[in-house]
Write a structure and sequence with these properties.
- By secondary structure, the chain is of the alpha+beta class.
- The chain is built from five helices and eleven strands, in the order H-H-E-E-E-H-E-E-H-E-E-H-E-E-E-E.
- It folds into two domains: 100 residues, no CATH class; 118 residues, TonB (TolA/TonB C-terminal domain, 2-Layer Sandwich).
- The strands form four sheets. The protein has a four-stranded antiparallel beta sheet, covered by helices on one side. A three-stranded antiparallel beta sheet has the order 1-2-3, with no helix packed on it. Strands 5-8 form a two-stranded antiparallel sheet.
Length: 233
């Protein structure tokens, strides 16, 4: 929820901006968490995803506490040249059904990290008993027919990753349900500059023929997928 609120807040600032420019959300400010993923080399972690862009004058941070019936949001704006807080306020809003639905929205690169796994997306409204522990993995069953991709559009480069000339492979683990739709996506090995989020956003739209049990019955499975980002001259 926090990631989506931050994204919408950034869009609102950009829409109403007059004498200032809003930094790209996929800039250097959201690469630190991406660098914690297993595939990140020291070079990847040091990539500046805001190359060629002006340095920020202010940094706006958001903090959120979700209570049973409401959400408390704190917004703090700090001036970068002297690290002075020029705005620090809290607001309380009701926990509406719309806000509850945001709990399943895709986190940003600074989103939920669990062990060695990276950002995780869960399809809104989809419940996985025992966190999907009882769903078989295609690499552990030999008598299942694997999912077959029907509509799998290519993930497009974010501008920040293209400017930084980031290339490589992102590995994701996808729970494909019995209808052939992605239900959960976990980034296993990632890249900086918004490529992880772009990958998950794209894979979430893919459509498959579902995996089949030996008797031909459709079944949910975990499937490892690699998405390649390559720049062509």
């Amino acid at each position: 929820m926090g990631a989506e609120l931050a994204r919408q807040f950034s869009k609102s600032l950009a829409k109403n901006a007059r004498d200032f420019v809003i930094a790209d959300p996929n800039s250097e400010f959201d690469t630190s968490s991406a660098s914690r993923l297993p595939s990140q080399s020291a070079a990847d972690a040091a990539v500046n995803c805001s190359a060629g862009k002006p340095k920020p004058t202010f940094v706006v941070e958001g903090y959120m506490d979700q209570l049973q019936d409401r959400v408390v949001i704190r917004i703090k704006a700090t001036r970068t040249d002297d690290n002075k807080a020029i705005f620090d306020e809290r607001v309380t809003v009701p926990l509406t059904p719309e806000l509850q639905a945001l709990e399943s929205k895709l986190p940003s690169a600074a989103g939920k990290l669990s062990g060695e796994n990276g950002p995780t997306w869960v399809r809104p409204g989809f419940h996985i008993p025992d966190n999907g522990a009882n769903v078989p993995s295609m690499d552990s069953v030999s008598n299942y027919t694997p999912p077959r991709c029907l509509e799998c559009p290519r993930a497009e480069y974010p501008d920040s990753a293209m400017v930084a000339k980031i290339q490589g492979m992102i590995s994701v683990r996808v729970l494909i349900d019995a209808t052939g739709r992605p239900a959960e996506i976990i980034v296993l090995k990632g890249l900086p500059c918004g490529l992880n989020e772009r990958t998950v956003e794209t894979v979430a739209t893919w459509k498959f023929d579902p995996a089949l049990e030996p008797d031909g019955k459709p079944v949910a499975v975990w499937q490892n997928i690699e998405v390649n980002f390559q720049l062509f001259n």
